[in-house]
Amino acid sequence: MQLIDAGMIAFAAWHALKGRVEWPLTFQVPRMIRKLVTEAGDTYALFWNAEQQWKRERWPAYRDRPEIWDHAGREDYEAMLAVLSALGAVQYRADGREADEILAAVAHCLAGAEEILIRSDDKDFMQLLSGSTRMEGRVRGTVRFSDVKGILGVTPAFVADFLALAGDPVDGIPRIVPPATARRLIETRGHVRDWIDRDLRIEPRLKAAVEAGREQLKLNLELVDLSAEAVGKPPAPREGWGDLATARGIGQRLSITWLSEDGVADEFAVLRAWGAKTRERLRVLE
């Protein structure tokens, strides 16, 4: 199954078409998803950020950058979501949760039962990789379980610990210790949660840094942890699946010709067919 970090596709559509078409997301994203699903020939699900996220409430600097609806506009974003569901795409979005959490929750439920491909460049997902789960993105290409240590210097089991210690400026996670020191602590002490509240017998300067950053380190780990215990159970998929009348109505309202034409059902049959198989597969999560 393909688990798709859909925000990256929406941003690609917006950057390609902004100023050229009035509704770039609704116009282009469904067609991009259709191409991806057609080429892969596999079940799939799309994952989107919520508008309000608990992680930003806990740490306002966390991924403090505009969301796709801030760029493209809420009307285009909401219309795109409705059209995707109507055309047969399986989508997840839940109040308070970011796409990463929900994608991870689904991945944990399916782990070991089938091959999983996470479509994203987000290194946080490296903690989910295993013999049956891999990543694929535009920046690094395919990343497998065995590739992670060469990229971050730790195995997938310790990715969250490494990010919590070394920080991640892209996501607004403050650094507690330098990356090399983070790896050394992980190699000698193991998971952060196992020693964070202990009196460590380590060199004085490092001990002082860890003690001074202890509360921030706990928060960092809370923000980056995508373990099954951290993310919980996945929500139900978005409603409105397979309602072609909705898609045509939006096409007419927004003057998107291809969306309001009679042939749209045939053109997007592949999206609906694989979407139906996905829905059946995901019933095990209910």
Protein model, in words:
The protein is of the alpha/beta class and 286 residues long. The chain folds into two domains: 2-97 and 235-285, Rossmann fold (3-Layer(aba) Sandwich); 150-226, 5' to 3' exonuclease, C-terminal subdomain (DNA polymerase, domain 1, Orthogonal Bundle), CATH 1.10.150.20. The protein is 52% helix and 8% strand. The chain contains 17 helices and six strands. It has helices at residues 7-17, 24-40, 54-58, 68-72, 74-86, 99-110, 148-152, 159-166, 179-189, 192-195, 204-212, 214-224, 228-231, 244-254, 257-260, 264-267, 269-282, and strands spanning 2-5, 44-47, 91-92, 116-119, 133-137, 141-143. A six-stranded mixed beta sheet has the order 3-2-1-4-5-6, with helices on both faces. It is elongated. It starts with a strand and ends with a helix.
Labels describing this entry:
286 residues; alpha/beta; Rossmann fold; DNA polymerase, domain 1; 2 domains; six-stranded mixed β-sheet; 8% strand; elongated
Indicate the topology.
Layout: E1 2-5, H1 7-17, H2 24-40, E2 44-47, H3 54-58, H4 68-72, H5 74-86, E3 91-92, H6 99-110, E4 116-119, E5 133-137, E6 141-143, H7 148-152, H8 159-166, H9 179-189, H10 192-195, H11 204-212, H12 214-224, H13 228-231, H14 244-254, H15 257-260, H16 264-267, H17 269-282
Parallel strand pairs: 1-2, 1-4, 2-3, 4-5
Antiparallel strand pairs: 5-6
Helix pairs in contact: 1-2, 2-5, 5-14, 8-9, 8-12
Q: What's the short version?
A:
The protein is α/β, with parallel strands linked by helices and 286 residues long.
Structural class: alpha/beta
Low-pLDDT segments, ≥5 res? none
Shape: elongated
In helices, the fraction of residues equals 40-55%
Using the coordinates above, name the CATH class of the largest domain.
Alpha Beta
**What is the average of the pLDDT values?**
95
- Strand order of the biggest β-sheet: 3-2-1-4-5-6
Q: Sketch the topology as an H/E string, one letter per element.
A: EHHEHHHEHEEEHHHHHHHHHHH
Count of helix runs: 17
Q: How is the biggest beta sheet arranged? A: 6 strands, mixed
Report strand %. Answer: 5-15%
Q: What is CATH's topology name of the largest domain?
A: Rossmann fold
- Count of strand segments: 6
Number of domains: 2
Rg measurement, Å: 21 Å
Ends apart, CA distance between termini: 17 Å
Report the CATH architecture of the largest domain. 3-Layer(aba) Sandwich
